[in-house]
Amino acid sequence: MHKQIYVNLAVKDLARSMAFFKALGFGFDPQFTNEQAACMIVGENIYVMLLPVPFLQTFTDKPVADAHQSTEVLLCFSCDGRAEVDALVAGAVAAGGRAPRAPQDHGFMYTHSFEDLDGHLWEPMAMLGVPPA
């Protein structure tokens, strides 16, 4: 069996967060989505569980970070090319997110980033060639 990853992210408004990510083209697994959580499909075997803060708090004794105030994680994922990277960031901004910095072109890799409605940092990237040795 292939390993799967489920990243759990705190959200303030589950329905609003789901609408944001649907606007970017992400789908949700209905088997693991209800009024307490949404299982967003990022790729084969990669999922993000959007969890309202009170529900996420039941999984830990630590305080839940406010991603608008501090960086708790940077979620980097691959895209098929520059156009897809740029389209995702443009879609995120149009849906209410923000692009905190300019795109980065490293020659062999192109990245850009956006913050979702809850301040989580996402970095779509495209590998364009072989990195320098």
UniProtKB/TrEMBL annotation:
Positions of the VOC domain: 3-127
Annotated coiled-coil segments of the chain: none
Top-rank taxon, per record: Bacteria
Gene3D superfamilies named among the record's database cross-references: 2,3-Dihydroxybiphenyl 1,2-Dioxygenase, domain 1
Pfam families: Glyoxalase
Classification via InterPro entries: Glyas_Bleomycin-R_OHBP_Dase (IPR029068), Glyas_Fos-R_dOase_dom (IPR004360), VOC_core (IPR037523)
Protein name: VOC domain-containing protein
